[in-house]
Amino acid sequence: xxxxxxxxxxxxxxxxxxxxxxxxxxxxxxxxxxxxxxxxxxxxxxxxxxxxxxxxxxxxxxxxxxxxxxxxxxxxxxxxxxxxxxxxxxxxxxxxxxxxxxxxxxxxxxxxxxxxxxxxxxxxxxxxxxxxxxxxxxxxxxxxxxxxxxxxxxxxxxxxxxxxxxxxxxxxxxxxxxxxxxxxxxxxxxxxxxxxxxxxxxxxxxxxxxxxxxxxxxxxxxxxxxxxxxxxxxxxxxxxxxxxxxxxxxxxxxxxxxxxxxxxxx
Amino acid sequence: xxxxxxxxxxxxxxxxxxxxxxxxxxxxxxxxxxxxxxxxxxxxxxxxxxxxxxxxxxxxxxxxxxxxxxxxxxxxxxxxxxxxxxxxxxxxxxxxxxxxxxxxxxxxxxxxxxxxxxxxxxxxxxxxxxxxxxxxxxxxxxxxxxxxxxxxxxxxxxxxxxxxxxxxxxxxxxxxxxxxxxxxxxxxxxxxxxxxxxxxxxxxxxxxxxxxxxxxxxxxxxxxxxxxxxxxxxxxxxxxxxxxxxxxxxxxxxxxxxxxxxxxxxxxxxxxxxxxxxxxxxxxxxxxxxxxxxxxxxxxxxxxxxxxxxxxxxx
Lengths: 266, 315
Prior knowledge:
The complex is a heterodimer.
Chain A: H1 3-25, H2 27-50, H3 55-88, H4 91-96, H5 101-131, H6 140-168, H7 175-186, H8 198-204, H9 208-217, H10 229-258, H11 260-263
Helix pairs in contact in A: 1-5, 2-3, 2-5, 3-5, 3-6, 3-7, 5-6, 6-7, 6-9, 6-10, 9-10
Chain B: E1 7-18, E2 24-36, E3 41-45, H1 52-59, E4 67-72, E5 75-76, H2 81-87, E6 88-92, H3 103-113, H4 118-131, H5 147-157, E7 165-169, H6 177-194, E8 197-201, H7 205-211, E9 214-219, E10 222-227, H8 229-236, E11 240-246, H9 252-255, E12 261-267, E13 270-275, H10 278-291, E14 296-302, H11 306-314
Parallel strand pairs in B: 3-8, 3-9, 6-7, 7-8
Antiparallel strand pairs in B: 1-2, 1-4, 4-5, 9-10, 11-13, 11-14, 12-13
Helix pairs in contact in B: 3-4, 8-11
């Protein structure tokens, strides 16, 4: 690796290492990666048994549950890049360093992907063991595209949450845990978007996750609602990524102008 | 062509908005201008709210100024903040880091953020642990460190990128005297060994006198005085103290009318006078007492310390 590339990768690795060390030593991360996904898969899976849903509908719902769990864990890691420092009241030290926002976003996202993959492994294992559901049925390419789509959605949400944190301080902390719930309502996690009222369904069509769920569910017998769903999913993801990255940059400039970094530190 | 100064500030202004919808502006800096040559130590003194942290934070690129310009090591803090951050670092009093990390991990992460790679980073972290006497606590969680250790860690963090300009915002606040002495020794060593330019804000006059080549007094966002410690005392004219133990304590009243005597009072049996210049006024004072037949049992002359200058300026 050239000198410049090594230096830039080292800066990215700072965010991976920080999130990794914090995850190892804080109990709430165990809940995030193990407890909630387990509760999600079993509670939803058993609910489908209770109401007597068929295998396709069960597949529909379990795919949504898995997606929610993975996105939540991954986006939290992106948000933690800012949130940990805010909780410690030491955020200014991070922004004293010669790092760009892309180091922060990439490093924390990579750690989020690792934890997201851990959630996938656990949830897929539980779904197979508990309900005979096979997340690998669509094949590696389709699964990889689906997971990548989930991770892109997560980084978009995480950057959005980070923007709110820099704009509003710890008052916006609740968004780290509630933003994904909003997506839940709109993107077809537990029901097809066609059930939503027309104006709301139009909003769903603007959410990248809607397309990735549609594309993946097609492998389980559900006729796709959207044409070229994966292309639309990736295209909208990249647009949102650019927008949220820009918003975060603007929020950081605003924070430097208003003195927010100092107020949120010692 | 010589190197540019370490710091060049011209007409720097900064205000903070408050109230709804952000109409009230509280000025923090009002037209501050100064420069600092490379390798110098500048202390910034002033009462709370004077603008010290605002000034240092602008130089560290944590704050954007409203007007004016600031250049650090030849780079504009607004247009080239990344270049500034590569060559500058900052330590503040009561610094906070992540509660679940150890000093070794914290230094490692900040060294990574500075782009220090591989073996160089590992060696530098270990060297800083030794230099700031943190080795014995390298694996202790940050939340379990004492205040003194946290402050030493904050200074170590500020050295991970071997900065050419080091900004210290009240580095010894709240520390025991022995720890403060050790930290001041580290600061002096940095300047001596590496020629690091140091900007230091402090409330402790002894610290400023010990470490600084030059001192700036800030108050209400403006520079009230600037100079080395001795010239500041002369500039501000807080006066020398002459303390006398007289056989006739009531004789002090005669001294008040003498030229150059700024104030005189009786306190705990001694006569305490403030004169503009002890070298000039003391012979007249003694002659006057001798002619009045007043015996002098004890005489002490004290030059003003920076605290007196500070108090005078902060009034």
